[in-house]
Amino acid sequence: MAYEKICTLDDVWEGEMKSFVTKNGTEVLVIAHTNEQIVIVQNICPHQEIKLSKKGNLSEDGVLTCTAHLWKFNSSTGKGINPTDCKLSIYPSKVDNNDIFVNINGIVPEKSHS
Ligand code: FES
User: Fold this and answer.
1) Cβ 66 under 6 angstroms from ligand 1
2) pTM over cut 0.90
3) In DSSP terms, which residues pair with 102 in a beta bridge?
4) Which of 50, 51, 52, 110 maximizes ligand 1 atoms within 8 Å of its Cβ, making it the mutation to test the pocket?
5) Residue 65 contacts by C-beta under 8 Å, 6 or more apart in sequence?
6) Measured from the CB, is residue 48 less than 6 Å from ligand 1?
7) Which residue stretches of the chain have pLDDT < 70?
8) Residue 33 alpha carbon to ligand 1 centre in Å
């Protein structure tokens, strides 16, 4: 599978994040950083698989916190901040004109169960 259009730049305002569902039913979280960087990550927290679109909070400095148990992630890289041995899968993305595309091919959401 190749890139597919997931939403437009008008759908996610700078500094915000919103979930969308791909054609095969994968939920992804589109993060629009204030520096215009678009990052698309898995929409489930690796800890206990709660949806980040419901429990996630994005701070101005780009820290994505799952408010269920306060796991924190770098929303640009997906790397865990606390704890550090976890991460979010990042899906390749690109922007063409006003459209945002995602490629979910071969990428599996991270799970921890710890
Ligand atoms: S489910 Fe996200 S921190 Fe526990």
Assistant:
1) yes
2) yes
3) 4, 93
4) 50
5) 56, 57, 58, 59, 71, 72, 73
6) yes
7) 1, 113-114
8) 22
Is 50 in contact with 109 (CB distance < 8 Å)?
no
Place of tokens 């997906």: 78
Residue in this structure with the two tokens 């678009």, named with its chain if needed: 38
The pLDDT of residue 112 is: 86
Sorted by where each starts, the structural domains of the chain and their CATH numbers stand as 4-102 (2.102.10.10)
Q: Which candidate, 1, 75, 13, places its Cα nearest to that of 42?
A: 75
In the reported structure, the alpha carbon of residue 20 is separated from the centroid of ligand 1 by a whole-number distance in angstroms of 20
> What is the distance in A from the centroid of ligand 1 to the CA of 93?
25
Cβ of 73 below 6 Å from ligand 1: no
> Which letter does DSSP use for residue 98 in this model?
T
For the chain, report the end-to-end CA distance as a whole number of angstroms.
32
Single-letter residue type at 3: Y
